[in-house]
């Protein structure tokens, strides 16, 4: 077993993990901003049709190690976190509106 190869592969995984966290953070920031915009007009943060759109778009993206079901499970958590960020954004706007009234 080539220990240096394993360490190199693990280092690559670590870089990918960091990239995933960075991308997820960007996604949550966008969801937060959407929530703020929706909060201004009283729109609901959760739009089930949009969530279904996301799931539908994943159907053709499976790969050797990720089936459509795997991706749906992963994205269920990502969507839930995005909803939470959006709700935080809407709540922030509503609190500011309440303070100025």
Question: What can you see in these coordinates?
Answer:
- This protein is mainly α.
- The protein has one domain: Chorismate Mutase Domain, subunit A (Up-down Bundle), CATH 1.20.59.
- Helix content is 82%, strand content 0%.
- The chain has 3 helices and no strands.
- Helix 1 (3-41) packs across helix 3 (68-100) and helix 2 runs antiparallel to helix 3.
- The chain is elongated.
- The termini are far apart.
- The mean pLDDT is 93.
Topology:
Elements: H1 3-41, H2 48-58, H3 68-100
CATH class: Mainly Alpha
Mean pLDDT: 93
Q: Gyration radius, to the nearest Å?
A: 18 Å
SSE run = HHH
Would you give the CATH topology?
Chorismate Mutase Domain, subunit A
Question: Structural class, from secondary structure content?
Answer: mainly alpha
Tally of strands: 0
Summary tags:
single chain, about 80% helix, Chorismate Mutase Domain, subunit A, mainly alpha, about 100 residues
Give a brief rundown of this model:
This protein has about 100 residues and is mainly alpha-helical. About 80% of the residues lie in helices and about 0% in strands. It has a single domain, classed as Chorismate mutase (Chorismate Mutase Domain, subunit A, Up-down Bundle).
């Amino acid at each position: 077993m080539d220990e240096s190869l394993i360490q190199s592969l693990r280092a690559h995984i670590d870089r990918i993990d960091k990239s995933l966290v960075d991308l997820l953070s960007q996604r949550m920031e966008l969801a937060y901003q959407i929530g703020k915009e929706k909060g201004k007009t009283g729109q609901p943060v959760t739009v089930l049709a949009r969530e279904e759109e996301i799931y539908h778009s994943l159907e053709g993206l499976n790969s050797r190690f990720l089936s459509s079901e795997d991706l749906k499970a992963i994205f269920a958590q990502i969507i839930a976190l995005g909803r939470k960020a959006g709700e935080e954004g809407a709540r922030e706007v509503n609190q500011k509106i309440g303070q100025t009234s």
